[in-house]
DNA sequence: AAGTGGGTCAACCGCGTACCA
DNA sequence: CTGGTACGCGGTTGACCCACT
């Protein structure tokens, strides 16, 4: 993998200079922002496999990643962890999210703990893009709860299919980290990269996409 | 065929909390 | 007890793709 040079500045990637902490050191460190590259992921995964997670700022420095500890932590927790489940929210999960949100509100991390393999970020996005919108629509049409309940039951409400989730939460996808590099070669946006690979298995072996499950055994 | 708007997702930012010296 | 540092969480933004006009 090392033969493919990591693009120092993939589209959207940004660099900035920050002062490293420690009070008085004043050492300036270049920090990368934006989408993660495959090489960065490899470095992070390798480092955590060897040293374990935690102490993120130190980890970022030691691993040679030009990222903040925060960024490393986020990337690991949301995408690189082996137990992260990517893909569509199942009806059961949907129901659970609704229930837990009704109980706890926007305590996404708390809710995520009840959904093995799901991340707070994923649940948060799901809520904002699917449920919140639907509730909003329902406010004008007075049947938000009906719509949600109908969706959970695999049915539909009088609002029709505009916000219907039925079609999108039936299958779970395996882990497929995404990269801006893949965008360049495949002409697809990062988060879309795994979708065609998933729906058309014959294309999943393309060098453009790489299966996370293929990758993990390498770490041990 | 081209342009526009909406939807989705990944990543960043700021704040609060916990821990340690 | 106080100050500093790191971590974790929730909110927000930016970029891209797809569907519709």
Give the strand order of the largest sheet, numbering strands 1, 2, ... along the chain: 1-2
Q: Report the CATH topology name of the largest domain.
A: Arc Repressor Mutant, subunit A
Model regions low in confidence, pLDDT < 50 over at least 5 residues: 1-12, 19-26, 140-150, 152-176, 181-215
CATH homologous superfamily label of the largest domain: Homeodomain-like
Q: Quote the distance from N terminus to C terminus.
A: 17 Å
Which percent range fits the helix content? 40-55%
Instruction: Provide the structure class.
Output: mainly alpha
CATH class of the largest domain: Mainly Alpha
Keywords: DNA-binding, Nucleus, Repeat, Transcription, Transcription regulation
GO cellular component, one term: nucleus
Region (Disordered): 1-29
Domain Myb-like: 28-80, 81-131
What does it look like?
The protein has 220 residues and is mainly alpha-helical. It has two domains: 1-86 and 175-220, Orthogonal Bundle (Arc Repressor Mutant, subunit A), CATH 1.10.10; 89-170, Homeodomain-like (Arc Repressor Mutant, subunit A), CATH 1.10.10.60. Helix content is 48%, strand content 7%. It has ten helices and four strands, in the order ββαααβααααβααα. The strands form two sheets. Strands 1-2 form a two-stranded antiparallel ribbon. Helix 2 packs across helix 3 and helix 6 (120-141) packs across helix 7 (144-152). It is elongated. The two termini are 17 Å apart. Residues 1-12, 19-26, 140-150, 152-176 and 181-215 have low confidence and may be disordered. Pfam families: Myb_DNA-binding. Residues 28-80, 81-131 form the Myb-like domain. GO terms for molecular function: DNA-binding transcription factor activity; sequence-specific DNA binding. InterPro entries: EOBI/EOBII-like_plant, Homeodomain-like_sf, Myb_dom, SANT/Myb. Keywords: DNA-binding, Nucleus, Repeat, Transcription, Transcription regulation.
């Amino acid at each position: 993998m090392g033969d493919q040079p990591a693009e120092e500045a993939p589209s959207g990637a940004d660099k900035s200079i920050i002062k490293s902490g420690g009070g008085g050191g004043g050492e300036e460190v270049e920090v990368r922002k934006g989408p993660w590259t495959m090489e960065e992921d490899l470095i992070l995964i390798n480092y955590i496999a060897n040293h374990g997670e935690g102490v993120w700022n130190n980890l970022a420095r030691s691993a040679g990643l030009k990222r903040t500890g925060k960024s490393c932590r986020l990337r690991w927790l949301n995408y690189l962890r082996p137990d992260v489940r990517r893909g569509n929210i199942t009806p059961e999960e949907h129901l659970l999210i609704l229930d837990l949100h009704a109980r706890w509100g926007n305590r996404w991390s708390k809710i995520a703990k009840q959904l093995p393999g799901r991340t707070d970020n994923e649940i948060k996005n799901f809520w904002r893009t699917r449920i919140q919108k639907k509730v909003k629509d329902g406010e004008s049409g007075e049947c938000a709860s009906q719509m949600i309940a109908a969706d959970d039951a695999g049915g539909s409400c009088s609002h029709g299919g505009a916000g219907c989730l039925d079609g999108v939460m039936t299958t779970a996808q395996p882990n497929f980290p995404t990269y801006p590099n893949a965008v360049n070669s495949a002409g697809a946006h990062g988060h879309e990269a795994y979708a065609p690979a998933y729906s058309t298995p014959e294309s999943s072996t393309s060098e453009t996409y790489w299966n996370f499950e293929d990758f993990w055994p390498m770490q041990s």
